């Protein structure tokens, strides 16, 4: 998914200066952003004062939206560089096309994982004949410097492993939980899981103490480490945890996101992640000139134009602890 803000603001991400080395309970409120003509998303990352969670650097939550008489998601071809995109649905379908030739319909609790590497472009749209409701999340993972120029590719995993216990079912999106590992390709120590809680659940989920974590509420009423987390909000949890208490007053669904704190300093502007202002400026120039990012074939419409670069220099910053 694209960042469609026309006044794109650079996010100075990475470094360990913003990492909380102990357990915390920091509730993050979303910023509402229009995505095309008919979809509004709740943007949780980047957030004021909280730019990343491990390598997770961008989180949008959308829906449930009634699109029975609407076109639904319509995101024209746009570029990505230096990151992976994760498409995750609870309701509806999204048709993915990209410049490597991939064409795939992604359905609820199937993993659509696109690795941009050095450069890719893609589009996302609700199929012409689509379900009534659209509900899901779009997330980005920053690639470490050693892998940010890798070949672009797309993965679709319709079957994902589960971790189950009384009151909870965890679907592994990326990484490992309790010894069970997702087939999705990762390039840094990271975890993502979809947690389905039944009404009355009172469970403890095992965690890695060296990871920092956050929990995004997708639906229902849930308490995360004693904090009520409403749908569309996210609770940052810091590091140093070996387990996470979860309770549900009704059936509820959460997304667990975590990973080793991302030490590299980077710049995220529009749909690009780089290490210098020159990286970003070159990517924008290449996209606007029609080079490097390839062509998305089959989409009925033209590509997105990149916003103007800000007047000042783009520099990666961050305090190293």
TrEMBL record:
Residues 41-141 form the Pirin N-terminal domain. GO terms for molecular function: metal ion binding. Residues 302-321 are annotated as: Disordered. Pfam families: Pirin, Pirin_C. Keywords: Iron, Metal-binding. Binds 1 Fe cation per subunit. Its cofactor is Fe cation. Gene3D superfamilies: Jelly Rolls. Belongs to the pirin family. This is Pirin family protein. It comes from Streptomyces fagopyri.
């Amino acid at each position: 998914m694209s960042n469609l803000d026309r006044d794109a603001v650079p996010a100075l991400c990475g470094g360990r200066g913003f990492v909380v080395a102990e357990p915390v309970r920091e509730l993050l409120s979303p910023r509402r952003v229009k995505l095309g003509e008919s979809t509004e998303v709740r943007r949780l990352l980047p957030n004021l004062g909280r730019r990343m969670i491990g390598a997770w650097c961008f989180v949008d939550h959308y829906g449930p939206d009634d699109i029975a008489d609407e076109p639904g998601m319509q995101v024209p071809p746009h570029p990505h560089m230096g990151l992976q995109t994760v498409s995750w649905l609870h309701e509806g379908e999204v048709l993915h096309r990209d410049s490597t030739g991939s064409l795939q319909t992604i359905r609820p609790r199937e993993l659509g994982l696109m690795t941009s590497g050095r450069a890719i472009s893609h589009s996302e749209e609700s199929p012409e004949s689509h379900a009534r409701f659209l509900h899901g999340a779009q997330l980005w993972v920053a690639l470490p410097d050693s892998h940010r120029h890798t070949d672009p590719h797309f993965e679709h995993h319709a079957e994902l492993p589960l971790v189950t216990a009384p009151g909870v079912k965890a679907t592994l999106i990326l990484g490992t939980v309790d010894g069970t590992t997702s087939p999705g390709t990762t390039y840094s120590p990271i975890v993502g899981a979809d947690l389905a809680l039944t009404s009355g659940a009172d469970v403890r989920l095992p965690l890695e103490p060296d990871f920092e974590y956050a929990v995004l509420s997708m639906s229902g009423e849930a308490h995360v480490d004693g904090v009520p987390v409403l749908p569309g909000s996210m609770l940052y949890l810091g590091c140093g945890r070996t387990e996470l208490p979860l309770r549900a007053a009704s059936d509820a669904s959460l997304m667990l996101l975590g990973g080793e704190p991302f030490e590299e300093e980077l710049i995220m502007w529009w749909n690009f992640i780089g290490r210098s202002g020159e990286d970003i400026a070159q990517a924008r120039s290449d996209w606007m000139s029609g080079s490097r990012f390839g062509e998305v074939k089959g989409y009925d419409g033209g590509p997105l134009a990149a916003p103007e670069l800000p007047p000042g220099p783009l520099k990666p910053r961050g305090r190293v602890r």
